[in-house]
Amino acid sequence: MSILVTRSSMPPFEEYCEEIKELWNTRWITNNGEKHQLFQSQLKEYLHTPNVTLYTNGHLALENVIEAMCFPKGGEVITTPFTFASTTHAIVRSGLTPVFCDIKFDDYTIDESKIEALITEKTCAIIPVHVYGNVCNIEAIQQIAEKYAVKVIYDAAHSFGVTYKEVSTANFGNASMFSFHATKVFNTIEGGAVCYSDSSLVQTLNDIKNFGIHGPEKTLYVGGNAKMNEFQAAMGICNLRHLDEEIRKRKLVAERYRQQLSDIDDIKLIAEQENVQSNYAYFPVVFEDPLLTRDKVFDLLREQSIFARKYFYPLTSEFECYQMLSNADSSKTPIAKYISEHILCLPIYADLSLEDVDKICEIISGFHRKCG
Ligand SMILES: Cc1ncc(COP(=O)(O)O)c(C=O)c1O
Description:
Blueprint: H1 13-20, H2 23-26, H3 34-47, E1 51-55, H4 58-69, E2 76-79, H5 85-93, E3 97-100, E4 123-127, H6 138-148, E5 151-155, E6 163-164, E7 167-168, E8 175-179, E9 192-196, H7 201-208, E10 213-215, E11 218-219, H8 230-261, E12 267-269, E13 276-277, E14 283-287, H9 294-303, H10 334-342, E15 343-346, H11 354-371
Parallel strand pairs: 2-3, 2-4, 4-5, 5-8
Antiparallel strand pairs: 1-9, 6-7, 6-13, 8-9, 10-11, 12-14, 14-15
Helix pairs in contact: 1-8, 3-8, 4-5, 4-7, 8-11
The structure holds pyridoxal-5'-phosphate (PLP).
């Protein structure tokens, strides 16, 4: 049987059926229904955060919060190219220009020491990514944002369940976006949320995600449709009950990988961050050996029906659709380029057996012995 890079977490079938049963009585299946409201309040409690707005997916959550915070259009946003397409697309689709900053070699998050040099009078925001659930340098980024009066919107798509100094990543910057996509540690099938401290944004975000409609006869924004429906919210309510257990099981998988791979030369595992409680969302490995290359390992695993992923390759600044941008030159972000060409995310999910982890590691270490 094949092993995919991830496998969606699902509650027991009966538990989900029980949760959605009453929808057949109420016939209220979207538009801020009871499940939506309950899930929203559960998230506020779980994340210890004052405001949560729910979305049909993380990408639209990001687009909507950018629209609410980066007005007027036309400004520049400092971000990294080492991310999923969504981060850069959300900036460009919002009428803004991405300015690419390099990442750090140890945790692949934005290199805060390189942000200031990229700030211009057009900069309106910084959108750093807690890539793989690794937490950006929150304090340094906040200092820069305050110095230049720019907004910080975290792409926290990977970091649900992650805490820094015991505080959820929902609570940093002006806003944080989570993805609840099926492939994430916590899912609502598709889904997402924006968490933020400024309560005056609640109404704006609710309006923007519902066609800009403010009241029965009043439409304030050129909004779209990004509402989370009741079936998604019900999945969230169920999956939240099992989240701690999911993370505990992922931790065992990650520890097994570490045990098996840490002694192999030229294989770089991601360092555990200080003061961070991880969600073990991904298991990225950097292959630095000129013989044991990322692409060879990828192919070798695929021959055995093991599907690792080249996350994130290519860089978003290398996408065909961004070649018209004057700063889409990946040689200006050399660390991001290097990591992107050498990294492979190995399969990790709660139910991945330790025997399967051993099998994956044996393929890698066997090849390493052969190369050596
Ligand atoms: C870094 C990052 N940002 C944004 C998104 C978009 O989230 P969604 O798939 O929920 O739209 C993803 C999704 O996979 C992601 O990995």
